[in-house]
């Protein structure tokens, strides 16, 4: 039986959440109302944390995968001494507040992951669990804790959750304890309309331990369930049968409690129903005292543990790996995926904090670290992850690994399948995570596999994502320096877009120029007016060089610009950008084997873009490239057409 003060604490969580949503007149009260006892059980009896040191490495992680229930998390952070004041709670969902609509890791201390797109948080937690096991494999002092998450019906309906859960079961991540808010209600009403599977059997088949708890109001039972989960040697899903909107006489157990304020009248009725006689946002002192006693005890555990933790590893790599690669240059032409493979292997030989894998394409994406082993359920020392054919979960898992730190994770697949993981890539960028996406087979140049596998829109559409650096190196050396920049850019994810086919090794005067995003690869004849600037990326750079040679013979003064990264170029000074792409040269042609939308930004109104605006076609790579206009002849003709205007 819970005591009187325990009941009051639970109601305090409930009413803070209700009042936040009501004041904002926007948000999701239903889940926080029914999950207040769970939050109380978890924070009081289980979660290890210290609000004064939110980044403490050995803290338990809690992820609110059902990010719409953010009011619940903010209420808990407030009551347990994080720097969220009552005024911050009153500012829920307002401009510039610390309490945005959905939790954001970059804004609020104590928020471990940016959640809201359902399924992501669940999968981030799998990444965190892998990172914890890995750091523990390196040093037993670290990673001894749990990854908790609240997941909802919507989370479990999303496919990404199946992907991540299946891998978590395969890897036997017993440090995962997830609580499923099984209220069987989602936005359109009863989940019977669309979600009738047996979740218990499903998760058991994934090799999870499943515990069922019937009454979400009984915090003691919930706490016991969590204790039981800690003894399991498998990941645990606690199915908590709950009733959304608990306490609201008219919206209880109905989708009406999901996503809008209860309304002034219903809030009053709910206060009456639960016997909560306090004004909005008024929390009696005895409740604050109760929570602060809980936190004091946790702080003591923290100081006992903290002392042993000073040796926590940091990602701290010098540039030896670059010197090593420059010392043994592969002057032969190689594909940029092969170049990337050499880079990855060299980096991994110098740090064990850089690891990753692919969605079952290691041989093709060249993402395997040959000097290391594969991570498996009984050994996390290896540097090779096998995500299975699960691009979406791979990306979200890597976000979790990055959130956990101190690792830099990478994930490889074909560029075409970046669409499968797009939302997770976007979340890497929004969450400012240093995750590397290794995206090979980057154009129609991949050849015979045909239009199903030939990316057209993908490259440009990655450039649409803010805070994502999209690199498309043109040769071995550009690949090295793109990686260098990706490793230095700690708050930004990077996409490395790489060729399947061999590319000519370029003669680059100054490698540092590569890091400027675009640079003059081949200068025009000095002292004479520039007739044409060719701008190429990746595999098209060498075609631009060939074309420039031919045009030179026809007395056309051509400059060739290689542009491996738009985003970095945009960060350069106006002077530099104008120097590389002078405004007064009208004849500019971009050459990139992808959609042309967007290139007018660089070629201007009088320029032209050679690209593809339909799908590709199955044929040998060199044939299809030629047919689609990536040829010296077409570049020369395009220039001549420009002169006709
Ligand atoms: C990927 C994704 N699709 C759709 C939504 C919009 N959405 C928010 S909550 C929700 C479902 C609500 O049901 P449930 O997850 O069971 O939450 P509850 O209402 O029980 O709190 C949906 C579809 C979303 N947040 N993320
Ligand atoms: Mg639900």
Description:
The protein is an alpha/beta fold and 645 residues long. The protein has three domains: 305 residues, Thiamin diphosphate (ThDP)-binding fold, Pyr/PP domains (Rossmann fold), CATH 3.40.50; 184 residues, Rossmann fold, CATH 3.40.50; 128 residues, 3-Layer(aba) Sandwich (Rossmann fold). It has 24 helices and 20 strands. Strands 10-9-11-12-14-13 form a six-stranded parallel beta sheet, sandwiched between helices. The protein has a five-stranded parallel beta sheet with strand order 1-2-3-7-6, with helices on both faces. Helix 1 packs antiparallel against helix 10. The longest helix has 22 residues. The mean pLDDT is 97. The site of magnesium ion has 5 residues, from strand 4.
Unreliable residue stretches: none
Class computed from helices, strands and strand pairing = alpha/beta
Task: Give the CATH class of the largest domain.
Answer: Alpha Beta
Output mean pLDDT: 97
How would you describe the oligomerization state of the chains in this entry? Answer: single chain
How many distinct beta strands? Answer: 20
The global form is elongated
Strand content: 5-15%
The CATH architecture assignment of the largest domain turns out to be 3-Layer(aba) Sandwich
The rounded Rg comes to 28 Å
The helix fraction, in percent, is: 25-40%
Strand line-up of the largest beta sheet: 10-9-11-12-14-13
Spatial separation of the terminal alpha carbons: 85 Å
- At the fourth level of CATH, the homologous superfamily of the largest domain is Thiamin diphosphate (ThDP)-binding fold, Pyr/PP domains
Q: What kind of sheet is the major sheet?
A: 6 strands, parallel
Give the tally of structural domains: 3
């Amino acid at each position: 039986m819970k005591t009187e003060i325990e009941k009051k604490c639970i109601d305090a969580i409930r009413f803070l959440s209700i009042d936040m949503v009501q004041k904002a007149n926007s948000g999701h009260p239903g889940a926080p109302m029914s999950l207040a006892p769970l939050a109380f059980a978890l924070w009081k009896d289980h979660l290890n944390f210290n609000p004064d040191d939110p980044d403490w490495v050995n803290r338990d992680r809690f992820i609110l995968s059902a990010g719409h229930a953010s009011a619940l998390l903010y209420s808990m952070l407030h009551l347990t001494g994080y720097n969220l004041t009552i005024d911050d709670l009153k500012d829920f969902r307002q401009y510039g507040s610390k309490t945005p609509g959905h939790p954001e890791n970059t804004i609020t201390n104590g928020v471990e992951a940016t959640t809201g797109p359902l399924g992501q948080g669940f999968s981030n937690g799998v990444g965190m669990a892998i990172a914890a096991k890995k750091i523990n494999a390196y040093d037993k002092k670290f990673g001894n804790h749990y990854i908790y998450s609240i997941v909802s019906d919507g989370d479990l309906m999303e496919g990404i959750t199946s992907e991540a859960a299946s891998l978590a079961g395969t890897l036997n991540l017993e440090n995962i304890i997830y609580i499923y808010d099984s209220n069987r209600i989602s936005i359109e009403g009863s989940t019977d309309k669309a979600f009738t599977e047996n979740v218990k059997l499903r998760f058991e088949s994934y090799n999870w331990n499943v515990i069922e708890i019937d009454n979400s109001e009984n915090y003691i039972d919930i706490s016991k369930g969590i204790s039981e989960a800690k003894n399991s040697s498998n990941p645990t899903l606690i199915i908590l049968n709950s009733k959304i909107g608990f306490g609201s006489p008219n919206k209880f157990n109905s989708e009406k409690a999901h996503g809008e304020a209860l309304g002034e009248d219903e809030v009053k009725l709910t206060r009456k129903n639960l016997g909560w006689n306090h004004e909005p946002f008024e929390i009696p002192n005895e409740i604050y005292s109760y929570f602060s006693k809980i936190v004091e005890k946790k702080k003591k555990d923290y100081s006992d543990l903290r002392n042993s933790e000073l040796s926590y590893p940091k990602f701290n790599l010098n540039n030896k790996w670059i010197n090593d690669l420059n010392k043994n240059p592969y002057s032969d032409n190689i594909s940029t995926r092969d170049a990337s493979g050499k880079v990855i292997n060299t980096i991994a030989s110098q740090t064990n904090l850089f690891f990753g894998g692919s969605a079952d394409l290691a041989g093709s994406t060249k993402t395997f670290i040959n000097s290391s082993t594969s991570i498996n359920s009984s050994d996390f020392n290896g540097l090779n992850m096998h995500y299975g054919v699960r691009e979406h979960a791979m990306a979200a898992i890597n976000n979790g690994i990055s959130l956990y730190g101190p690792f830099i994770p990478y994930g490889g697949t074909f560029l075409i399948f970046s669409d499968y993981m797009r939302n997770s890539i976007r979340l890497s960028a929004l969450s400012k995570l240093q995750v590397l996406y290794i995206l090979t087979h980057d154009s129609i140049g991949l050849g015979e596999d045909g239009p199903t596998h030939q990316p057209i829109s993908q490259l440009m559409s990655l450039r649409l994502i803010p805070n994502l650096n999209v690199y498309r190196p043109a040769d071995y050396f550009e690949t090295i320096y793109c990686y260098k920049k990706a490793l230095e850019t700690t708050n930004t994810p990077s996409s490395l877009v790489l060729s399947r086919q061999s590319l000519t090794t370029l003669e680059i005067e100054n490698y540092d120029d590569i890091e400027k995003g675009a640079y003059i690869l081949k200068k025009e004849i000095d002292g004479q007016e520039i007739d044409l600037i060719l701008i190429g990326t990746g595999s098209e750079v060498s075609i631009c060089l060939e074309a420039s040679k031919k045009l030179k013979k026809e007395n056309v003064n051509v400059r060739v610009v290689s542009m491996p990264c738009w985003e970095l170029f945009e960060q350069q000074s106006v002077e530099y950008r104008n120097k590389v792409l002078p405004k007064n040269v009208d004849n500019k042609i971009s050459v990139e084997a992808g959609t042309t939308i967007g290139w007018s930004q660089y070629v201007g109104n009088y320029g032209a873009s050679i690209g593809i605006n339909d799908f590709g076609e199955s044929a040998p790579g060199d044939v299809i490239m030629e047919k689609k206009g990536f040829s010296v002849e077409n570049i020369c003709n395009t220039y001549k057409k420009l002169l006709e205007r």
